[in-house]
Amino acid sequence: MFTWINSQAVRCDQGFEVESMGRFTIDYREGSKKVSVYVENGMEGGKPCVIIMKPTAFEKWDGDPPGASNPLEKQQEMLRNFIEAMEFQGLAVVVNR
């Protein structure tokens, strides 16, 4: 279940938050860990959407050492969480490939 933190951020009872930080950045957080996702605005199926510009956006947490990466399953979970949070806010998500 999602709740609004403020007009730009939502929190899920599953332990993550998603917050728009500006026109091109949306932060995905789990506790003290964060990924800054570069996005652009667009339309998908007649509905406003955010376009994730890098398909590897969830590959590693901000501040991780070089060479570190999240397991593929974790990356997929983070993307699913991000999509659910955006849908709660009335936005579709497109991953630029």
Features:
97 residues; alpha+beta; 1 helix; 18% helix; 7 strands; seven-stranded mixed sheet
Q: Which range best describes the helical content: under 10%, 10-25%, 25-40%, 40-55%, 55-70% or over 70%? A: 10-25%
Run of helices and strands? EEEEEEHE
Taken from the alpha-carbon principal axes, the silhouette is globular
- Whole-number total of structural domains: 1
- The number of distinct β-strands equals 7
In whole angstroms, how far apart are the ends? 30 Å
Put simply, the count of helices is 1
Question: Please, could you describe this protein's structure?
Answer:
- The model has no long low-confidence stretch (mean pLDDT 95).
- The protein has 97 residues and is α+β, with helices and mostly antiparallel strands.
- The protein has a 7-stranded mixed beta sheet, with helices on one face.
- It has 1 helix and 7 strands; from the N terminus they run ββββββαβ.
In short:
By secondary structure, this protein is of the alpha+beta class. It has 1 helix and 7 strands; from the N terminus they run ββββββαβ.
Task: Draw up the topology in text.
Layout: E1 2-6, E2 9-12, E3 16-20, E4 25-30, E5 33-44, E6 47-52, H1 72-88, E7 92-95
Parallel strand pairs: 6-7
Antiparallel strand pairs: 1-2, 2-3, 3-4, 4-5, 5-6
